[in-house]
Every structure is written in C-alpha cells, then in structure tokens.
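This week, work through this protein record:
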Amino acid sequence: MAKKFITVEEYWGRKLTGGSYYQWMARMMQIISAMETGNQQFAGYVTETQALLAKLSLLIKQSGAFEDTPAVKAADNWRDRAFTAIFMHIYYCNFLPTGSCLYAAAKKLYPQVKPYTSLQQHEMTQETSEIAGFLRILNAEGNQAAVATLGLTEIVAELAEQNTIIQTEMAKREQEDAARNQMKEGETMATLRAQIGDIYETMLQMLNAFVVMGNASVTAAVPELNAVIDHYQQIEAQKDGKATGDPSTPGGSGSDSGTTTPTTPDSGDNGGDNGGDNSGDNGGGDDSGGGGTEGGDEF
C-alpha cells in the first residue's frame, strides 16, 4: 500500500480582510523561515514576501486615524489628565495664604504656565508641541525647587514620558507616510496581495514537495502551518456567516478538502492544480476591513 503524506493545505485567504490577510501571511512566513533545514531554498521567497507585506501594512495603516491607535489614545488620555492635575494644582495654590511655602512656589510658576491654559483641547500635533514647552518651563533649573515644593516632581516626569510616547508614534507615522509616498504608482492592496499569492503558491508547491521527499524539518512544520490555516479559515467562514466546523463549508474546519495526499513522489499534483487557478485572485479579497486588525485574528 502506498504511503500517504500529510501536506500543507491549499488555502489562499481570498476573502480575508486586509488586516487578517496580513496577519495570516506574516505568521506563515515566520514559521517557514524558522524551519531548520530547507531554509536556504525558502529564504529568498520569504524575504520577498516580507517586503511586499511591509508595503501592504502601510496601506492598511493609511486608512486608520492616527489618534485612534491604542498607544497614542492611551498616552493622550493620560497626559490630558496629568496636565489638568498639574495646572490646576498650581492655579489653586496661587490662592493660598501668602505665608505658605506652597503659595510662594505657585506664585513663581503660575505666570509662566498660564499661557498653556486648556492646551489639552488643541489638535494632537499642537498639543504635543505645547506640552513640550510646558515641561521645559517646569524642568527649568530655576523652577525645579518650586515643582518639588508643590509635590509635582513625579507626575511631571510621567507627563514627559507619555508625551514622548506620542512624539515617537508621530515620528513613526511620518516615516510611514514618507515610505508610502515612495511606493510605485498602481501598488494597491489588490496588486500586492496578487504578488504575494503568486510567491506563496510557489512556496506551497515546494513545501509539499519537501514533505514527499521526506524532509524532516518541513514535515515537522506542517501541523503548525495547517493550524494557522485552519484558524484563518474559521475567520473567513465567520465573515461569510457560515458555521465553523460545518463539513459542507468549503475550507471550513470540518472539511479535509484542503489536505492533499499524494501516494507517490511522482504524482506532482499536490501543490499546483488548485493554486494555479486561484493565485492571481488573491488581490480580489474584500478589504472593507483593511484599515484595522480585527479582534481575534491574532494566532
């Protein structure tokens, strides 16, 4: 009886949104690049795919509002509260009895910080710049003692840290915008996915050929590759409103239609027939959710 081989499922992720497609392919490249042997044969394909994924990521991020990114939103909320606490503490201490040391410290600082009233209501870039100016005043050598007297040293340091987070994120966004502007005309999510799909089809054929030839490290990676594929098949099925695990669902977790079982090394059919018809369509997936990463996509 001929030996059966468990090979990598034929799956193309055509209906995945941009964010899900990026996550799926990035994870597949991570697994493939980690294989101990056969890696030299795949290295060039992995590098090329990762370069295309980087471009795809730029287009996915383009449609997301900068202020809505988790790191920026959290830092902005925190610094708004911190600025308000610092400013209002200085303001109220300015009305304490004149003999109080807190009054003297606030009297020194308040005229300097007064121009920054309500800066947290300003646009993100303007607010970031104004907080940097606010911090320069509080951290000035002649003002550090007054800040310490008011008990504000720690919260001022934390405000500086949160503002730095936003400055760093803003610089990253500017670099992404610059890189996006250098992309070739006509490079869209659809064209990039089509290019990635063509490369992935070649890699899939190679992977399954290595399995048939008995390559141990590639064979060992197949279960993990198929587990990732099954995960994103479920996401795709949920997007279509189909029950996961239903044997009637094409590519669903209850279907074994994607697993090929060639009986001899000469069969030659395990990697290409289905992929040859579909690889050019990889860009045709629905990218309506491409501006973000869907919850539950991480694997």
